[in-house]
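fold-stage: in
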Amino acid sequence: MRTPRSQSCKSVLIVDDNPWIRKVLCERFQREADLVVCGEAENGKEAIEKAQQLRPELIVLDLSMPVMNGLDAARILRRLMPSVPLIMYSAFGDKLIERQARLIGIRELVPKSQDAAVLISKARSLLTPKGGVEAQEFGTGKRGACPFDDAQDE
């Protein structure tokens, strides 16, 4: 996993039990000049451990995962890291789950049926200070705008 070295890059933790979904999301986020995937987790318990270790600026969580689901992980993450925005990215969802997610403090809910561009857009809206200079830098499409350390994540 690559680690950001610049404050202009925003770090994202991807949490999903499906390795293919994680791979696709990591590739999609890594293509953005202003976003970097700092780590991956395959369940809620691992997400909590990785979040404490890596200190991401945003966490993208699946709902349905083994060991610990996304809602239970979000409850703990909100207590441990109250300023880190959470996005629920899931194939499952209904009004009850949406209500629970909002009560827990999940800021955005994105169905997996939507294009990944929607997820990227919502991530940026949560990470961009309103009216800040960073908003102008986002979406430049320039690969490599963020310096990385190529060290592998354990």
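fold-stage: in (second)
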Amino acid sequence: MTRPDTRELVTSAVANAEHDTDGFKYVRDEEAVTSIDEVTAAVESLETQQDLTTDAVDAVGVLVSTLTVELQQQSGLEIVLGNVSGMTSIDKFGENTDIDADVRADIWDGGKTVGALPAGTSLIWLAPTTAAKHNITSTSGSDDGAPVGGGARTLRIFGLPDWDTAEVNEDITMNGTANVLTANLYVIIHRMEVLTSGGTDINVGTITATATSPSATTVTARIEVGQGQTHMAIYGVPSTQKALMNLFYASFQKSGGQTAAADIFLKVNTNPDVQTVNYVQKHSDGLLSVGSSKFIHPFDPPKLFAGPAIIKLQALSGTANIDVSAGFDLTIVDN
């Protein structure tokens, strides 16, 4: 008796099954494979056949494992490509280029040792206490869109207008060292990016977004010279969405190759609609090295954060003058 080819049986059984696509479509050898459940059901059917050898069962197991991994990879790609309704992929990363010993500092452009620009703004990033319009300005007159300058000309801003509304964005035209007022009010600005620029640099000066109320001193986002966008490991989630964290990571550099140490904290404000300064510490990890070090901390299954929330990364340095880069990957899901 000729034994059936297990691969043909699996694909044939799945192709002829009543499909539940769940938004995915997988094609192998011109047969449609739309669900891991269908593959598993086909395998169970095959295992009941008396003429199926152990080697054949093992081969089917390998096929199922391969399909599982490939379907998971495809689902991630589909989210990134915007093909899955109600889901968005976010890669949030930041850098703090100068953290002193025994100091807690958030991982954002303004979190380094404080002083006159381009020194740091505030070790701990602050959100506006109320929704506010923001003044956008640069330390250089070259960051100008009318008349055009050699640096940043137009800028896109991303943030939340309140804690019950999904992310919005707007474009502004830079006006050098003069303030340009945003059209929207924001409870958080968690990203700014230069859209167009001149021939000198992507942005010649330090660009800042400063809330106009209540005190008109809270800098909620800034772009360092020549970077073209914010580097802030901070993200706001509205009440209409939830965030699934797939992983967070960190690395650092110590000048001179000396031994350095730092703790990295994953922190979450679970009620930013009520208060904007208190955070729950959800996780921690450490860095220790001579010269440089890094870690990647995955979550499987993903770690869930319901909105409204502010998610951020913070460092506590055991050594002076370290440069920390850190970030996290999120999948944002509509409620």
